[in-house]
Specification:
The chain has 238 residues and is mainly α. It has one domain. 74% of the residues lie in helices and 2% in strands. The protein contains ten helices and two strands; from the N terminus they run ααααααβααααβ. The protein is globular, with a radius of gyration of 21 Å.
Length: 238
């Protein structure tokens, strides 16, 4: 690692370290909370520490409960990638890019070093999500016919976070305000579509197909660029 790369990594770490604190806590705690809540919603207990209190839970009930609660993990991955990407350029925008001009490296190489530095920092929440997933699955008695997938879950989280990180990194090279408007607007739109359209179908019998919904399935379905967000985020599955 060159001296310039080391300096860029140190600067980005200082800019993002406090953002990582709540993210790391969420990455460790949410997988455990989701598994525990799913077992309660399924009407049983899978506590490995208290075998006498463990009750049988049907795999379909557990998977159904996990599917509803696991929808939070794609948003956690997106927030993680976006936060690190915004933090990567925050220092430059605050100093009007004087810091970048002072370095004896071309602008293109500097941006590439920043991109790699942020990707390395992403390994911190990735390690945290792996720890949380491992603790969540190691602390429960998994019903027959199901398996735990902490490594696959962690890999999906990393890929999703990297995808959003790269996208937001490119946008944040312009202005932070514009990037925030685009990101927050996109997240709100996806939430409205993900929640509102199924409610219209279930309660009113209206199957509303719009250009936005078509774009939603095109982006999240294979071979769409954001397909990783539309796949399975279950820690325990068949």
């Amino acid at each position: 690692m060159t001296r310039a790369m080391t300096e860029v990594l140190r600067t980005q770490w200082l800019a993002s370290r406090w953002l990582l604190v709540p993210i790391v806590l969420l990455c460790i705690g949410l997988p455990q909370a989701v598994v525990r809540l799913a077992t309660r919603y399924a009407g049983g207990s899978l506590d490995r520490l208290n075998p006498g209190m463990t009750s049988e839970i049907g795999p379909p009930l557990l998977i159904g409960a996990l599917e509803g609660l696991s929808a939070i993990f794609p948003f956690l991955a997106a927030i993680t990638g976006a936060a690190i990407a915004l933090a990567a350029w925050n220092w430059d925008h605050r100093t009007n890019h004087v810091y970048a001009l002072a370095l004896p490296v071309p602008r293109s190489r500097y941006a590439l070093m920043k991109l790699w530095a942020g990707a390395l920092i992403l390994l911190v929440p990735t390690l945290a999500i792996w720890i949380g997933a491992w603790l969540a699955t190691a602390g429960v008695m998994i019903p027959d016919g199901l398996r735990a997938y902490p490594l696959a879950f962690t890999a999906r989280f990393l890929l999703a976070a990297l995808l959003i990180y790269a996208t937001m990194f490119a946008l944040a090279a312009g202005t932070i305000r514009t990037t925030l408007v685009i990101f927050i607007g996109s997240v709100l739109l996806l939430m409205v579509m993900g929640v509102g359209l199924p409610l219209l179908h279930d309660h009113l019998g209206v199957d509303l197909i719009t250009p936005l919904q078509t774009a939603w399935y095109t982006m999240l379905g294979w071979p769409g660029p954001f397909e990783v967000f539309g796949g399975s985020w279950l820690l325990i599955d068949v």
